[in-house]
Amino acid sequence: MPPDLCNVAEPRTAPYMSAPRKIDFHCHSHFSDGSLAPEELVRLALQQEVTHLSITDHDTVNAYSRTLEALAAGEGLSLITGCELSCQWQRRNIHIVGLNMDLHHVGYRQAMQAQSQARLRRANSICAALQRLGFDVNLAAVQDLAAPGIIGRPHFAQYLVETRQMHSLAAAFKRVLGSGKAGDIKTNWPCLETAVDWITQAGGVAVVAHPLKYKLTLTKLRGLLADFAAVGGQAMEVVTGHQDPSPTRTLADLAQRFDLHASAGSDFHRPGQPWAALGHVQPLPDRCQPVWELWS
Length: 296
Ligand code: AMP
Ligand code: MN
Ligand code: MN
Ligand code: MN
Hints:
Number of helices: 9
Oligomer: single chain
Bound molecules: adenosine monophosphate, manganese (II) ion
CATH class of the largest domain: Alpha Beta
Strand content: 5-15%
């Protein structure tokens, strides 16, 4: 069996799904900082033989539509609603993936509006911060780069490269937009508890995204997971993108220790990035409790 096929039991509520399952519960469309339209993502997922997909755009669920649901259903792809929420924990920018929310839930719709307003306010602050550093930034032009999606730091990075003020996206993040730099404005984000509440009130499962990406010490990471579980968080990503066995073991240990279910996703943004290819997700270790058990 190819390594990216999960050899797990069928969900009880989806008898039409044929084994083996292949999941990807973390990816982005052009409604945030991905390059593909949701329909293109679904087609790519089908090509990769993904059986269960969640599109988890940053702070928006605009990818989800009746057309998309009909396309997925017609092809036998199980589409799970999703979103990657930006929030703050101990002054750090943490990402919480929500899975399987009711997108019509009034509180959740208000939350999405609040996040999109927070992004617009933050974009103004990023623009001002970059101008203070001496960059020439036209916010409307950055917004054009983000269209039809919600504006984020990657669009500022792209703008700086396209206007030849930075030589690469990586350099733009390293010098001005990455963690702790002047353009990394995070004061507008809600706290961890609020983000978890938004998801769980809408019937979804809150998942700590890519726990090793925050570069926390193990003690701090344990603190994050303990706080997350204490406010009702139920799962964490144990497999994210192309991942070696050692971090997978570390994350599976942490999931067991904090009694969190396990999720897995590629964090796909665009074709041509082999470390985050859609559907290329290692199976969860057997000792993990798969996240889909929480809704199936
Ligand atoms: P934002 O959601 O606006 O805070 O932007 C965060 C996004 O920026 C992440 O989801 C990544 O897609 C992207 N990103 C973060 N760090 C880097 C980096 N060093 N190089 C390229 N993209 C990055
Ligand atoms: Mn992103
Ligand atoms: Mn993220
Ligand atoms: Mn992501």
